[in-house]
Amino acid sequence: MSPPRSFDSVAGRVADLAPVFREPLDSPYEISNELYAALRHVLHDVGGQIDLPLPFREKPEEQWEMDTYVTCECLGWRGAWNSEERRRAENDLGATLYFGLPYYARWATVAAKVLINKGLITPDELTAKIDDVRARLEAGA
Amino acid sequence: MTQYQYGIGDRVTVKDGTTLFHTRTQAFTRGKTGTVVEFRPEWVIPEDEAWGRDDAERGGRYEPFYVVRFRQIDLWPNYTGFDVDTLETEVSEHWLEPAKENQ
Q1: With A54 labelled, which of A18, A73, B4, B100 sits at a CA distance of 20 to 30 A?
Q2: pLDDT value at position A54?
């Protein structure tokens, strides 16, 4: 017998209702070695971790996602970075941003950070460009 | 020619070494013993590549990589699947040591 079609949404709601324990961390005075190891854990290494099923969405890539992918690959081709630097930069975002951003938003975010870090662009150049594009889009809307 | 320290069929244990920063050696393989089943070409280790040291000129260290096959029951303490189930993953040479077990 197959599970009811609503299984994913029910499982998701249960996850929202189930009691959770989060250790509040606010620059504690001391931490255990065990906590330090957990905090250092490379975020993308999720093998074996307990998790709930995610609802599967039949969702094609959006244009901005493919643009991000191609831009990042071209940056690699031109020697600005490599894929492993990107993965490290994604992990280095920290858990909140890593799990909070959509997949390609993570790519776009770390591409910008790595380019700034390497002196290939400046933060003000980037934010000025973002403001340009926003003004253009708002004018066209 | 790449000099492989381990051969196909060798039993190897993944070192349970300290990881400070980036690595691709999965936590669930640390300290676990498996069997070398395939060679992979020599490549820059991820611990260097991740910091932009992605070729010899930039200080990237090349190592042979291996596909190591583990039994699932050796990886997961509460594994409920079949004893013959396996998992394969790629490991660079310096993460491996000869398994200390009686064959």
Answers
A1: A73
A2: 80
